[in-house]
Amino acid sequence: MIRFLIIIIISTSNLYSKNTYAIEIKNLFVDEKYVPAFDVFTMHSTDSEKLGYFSWVFANEVWAEAYGGLTYMPTSYFQIGLGIGIEKADNPLRIGSMIWVGKQNWSVLTLLENGGSGYWHQINAIYRFNKNIGIGFMKEEFTGFGPRLEFSFSNLPVQVWTSFLQLDGNLNKYFTIKFLL
Cystine design at 35: which of 28, 160, 166, 176 (Cβ 3.0–4.6 Å)? Predict the structure, then answer.
């Protein structure tokens, strides 16, 4: 069912004139345990419309989710969204929301969720020094809080980012490749 939702989300994205896709291949190390995962995030709106849509898909070896919904962008630097979807849980209903704030070289993206498996959130606050280097902070439920460093390649739609997150005295590490399509 998750694969079916991924296909629908990507297919319907082509109906809009302004499309953004981010596909991440995540390598998370929690207490020296390797946890591979991937996610797909889309956030769409047109220049002339305040309404748009977003979607989020995440999967690792033991759990997966997909949801999407509508967004509202009252200004060029603020967008909110609310969506519904499913997850791999006894109660598969999942509610998700996103908040994006950004202007010029800085942005904050927040994902908030709740459903059958419980509450989760992720917050990314990034300042871009130039088109190749960004630095900021990341907070993720169950993983921790800490610095995030991003490297983009000038002529390629690829970004590499890393984050070192503290949680209960443990250092959890992300090493991620992000494809911008």
Answer: 28
